[in-house]
Amino acid sequence: MDDAEKVFTQIPEFLEYLGTGCAEAIANAATPDKLDLSPKFPFLCSKHYADLIKKASEPEALLREILPTRDELANVPGFVDDPVGDLPAGKADCVIQKYDRRALIVSTATCGARCRFCFRKNYPFQSNPDVAKQVSDWLDTHSDIWEVILSGGDPLTLSPGKFRDLVEAIAMHGSVTTLRIHTRLPVMRPDLVMQHFELLRELSARFECVLVSHVDHPDELDEESQVVFGQLKFSGWTLLNQSVLLKGVNDNAKTLESLSRRLFMQGVLPYYLHQLDHANGVAHFEASDETALSLIAEIRKRLPGYLVPKLVREIAGEKSKTPIF
Ligand code: SF4
To answer: How confident is the model over 43-98, as pLDDT tens digits?
Structure first.
């Protein structure tokens, strides 16, 4: 196995790899009695992300994103299995349509690593669906769709063959002018993004191409993400980022300011700062709206307007994201 392909599925092996240099950060992120060694939402972390933790200025922030704790077992009123209303908006096994003339494809259940705050951690993913065929069949009868959003899981974890089949199936439908990919792979598995590069370059000749990265902390950005974003930008992709406001990870103005600036240095514009989706098992990550608003007010003073993300929340059944003022 190539070193870049290494993933950790066992927490003790992962912690051993991080080594004594991260001992304090590990203790800060989860004391031994808080660690959950066999979580319901299984642990997964790429070697790349483990290496980011090792060299991070705030390693405990990145660790909190990835390390399962017993806090996830808490039953908190208002936190549910389908917080953003994916299931009622399902149109075919892998097609979700919440918004007018735009459709979202749940292209795979696989991710480069598993974020503990994941909004789809309880989603009933189908096993081995023929996504390209399902999407093509659905688009055949929905010629009003102009934007297709590839989501998951992480769409760029698809094998090059399956990913090509999927985008070629979409490309056959002339009404679709914009292809948007939501991914966390530039910071979780940049090697997997690179394996799609020839196709990603070709796509910008057929679609308006938008990549929305999910980066939550400036320490997640390194030279490898810079290469990925640089090549995409050079190939004509529009690059945006959305983050989730996460208690103990990025809920301070200094981190958010640094995140916006580092994204911009890599060619990416901050787009949304999401309030946490209320999925079961994530309540310990919640920052209040009051905190969120004061953080936005503070970074507005420190940054030009184009680097201040919009503060939003997703409300199940609403026809757009809801701005928080
Ligand atoms: S990459 Fe996205 S879908 Fe995958 S675990 Fe993280 S938040 Fe969930």
So the answer is: 999 999 999 999 999 999 999 999 999 999 999 999 999 999 999 999 988 999 99
194 shares its domain with 232: yes
Domain end residue (candidates: 48, 73, 98): 73
Q: Is 115 in the pocket of ligand 1 (CB under 6 A)?
A: yes
54 and 198 together in one domain? no
- Domain tally for the chain? 2
CA distances from residue 305 to 35, 93, 261, 296, 301 in whole angstroms, order as listed: 40, 40, 12, 11, 9
Cα 301 to averaged position of ligand 1 atoms, centre (Å): 31
Residue nearest to atom 3 of ligand 1 (CA): 153
CA gap 25, 16 in Å, rounded: 13
- Alpha-carbon gap, residue 213 to 207, rounded angstroms: 18
Cα–Cα dist 172/168, whole Å? 6
User: Of 115, 185, 242, 276, which is best to mutate to test ligand 1, by the most ligand atoms within 8 angstroms of its C-beta?
Assistant: 115
Distance in angstroms between the alpha carbons of the first and the last residue of the chain: 49
Answer whether 118 contacts ligand 1 (Cβ < 6 A): yes
115 CA → ligand 1 middle, Å:
5
Q: Which domain holds residue 11?
A: 3-73
Question: Closest ligand 1 atom to the C-alpha of 183?
Answer: 1
Ligand 1 centroid distance, CA of 174 (Å): 30
pLDDT of residue 4: 64
What share of the chain in percent tops pLDDT 90? 95
CB atoms within 10 A of CB 49: 23
Point out the residues of the chain with pLDDT beneath 50: none
DSSP three-state, residue 35:
strand
In a domain, 81, yes or no: no
In a domain, 279, yes or no: yes
Helix axes 253-265, 289-302, angle to 10 degrees: 50
